[in-house]
Amino acid sequence: MTKTVAVVDYGMGNLRSVSQAVIHAAEGQGIDVVITCDPEVIRAAERVVLPGQGAMRDCMAELAASGAKEAVLEAAATKPLLGVCVGMQMLLDHSEEQDTPGLGLIPGRVQRFRLEGRLQEDGSRFKVPQMGWNRVHQPRPHPVWNGIPDESWFYFVHSFYATTAQPEHSAGETDYGLRFTCAIARDNIFATQFHPEKSAALGLALYRNFLHWNP
């Protein structure tokens, strides 16, 4: 029986690159990838991917306007859900970016990098947004990390970073002027600040692990 993954299309984010990566990861797996904002399609899917890019306030507003918000909340309570980039930040309680409430699915908040005047080890200034490859430390095992070595490199583009209220919800950490949470996990939810779809073979492996994860 064919299974379905819904990639939520609410008019924001790197939808094309995320959906293409998920489609590639699903090839030959008996999994259909559907790009949709239809609440009933999201509810019917076995698992859900929530991308996001840009300002969090805009993402939250567009998710509500699309009609998909309640279906995403229902999915987060009952089936595997993967958030990507701002799609991760949206899962937390609040962002200081335009004082924006999140979905409140995982306790925590989103803050802006404050690295003005700080120098990196090579003497160059920290730039905001962080843009480029960085190492990800895995503080604890998780099925979505299967086959992905600790301290692997993933691709980041972001000016805001997450802080979880409970340390056990931090599934990945990165150093950029400070150590911050770059992946969060709780029960059937996993999410990354970095972009797996821009992270070559290991990013594809992460998507593939999510497609086979049975929390």
TrEMBL record:
An example Pfam family from this entry, by short name, is GATase
This enzyme's EC code(s): 4.3.2.10, 3.5.1.2
Q: Which Gene3D superfamilies match?
A: 3.40.50.880
Active site per database record: 85 (nucleophile), 195, 197
Q: Which UniProt keywords apply?
A: Amino-acid biosynthesis, Cytoplasm, Glutamine amidotransferase, Histidine biosynthesis, Hydrolase, Lyase
Q: In which pathway does it act?
A: Amino-acid biosynthesis; L-histidine biosynthesis; L-histidine from 5-phospho-alpha-D-ribose 1-diphosphate: step 5/9
Q: Domain named Glutamine amidotransferase: which ranges?
A: 16-210
Indicate yes or no for the key word Hydrolase.
Answer: yes
Query: What's this protein's function?
Result: IGPS catalyzes the conversion of PRFAR and glutamine to IGP, AICAR and glutamate. The HisH subunit catalyzes the hydrolysis of glutamine to glutamate and ammonia as part of the synthesis of IGP and AICAR. The resulting ammonia molecule is channeled to the active site of HisF.
Kindly provide the name given to this protein in its UniProt entry. Imidazole glycerol phosphate synthase subunit HisH
Q: Which gene encodes it?
A: hisH
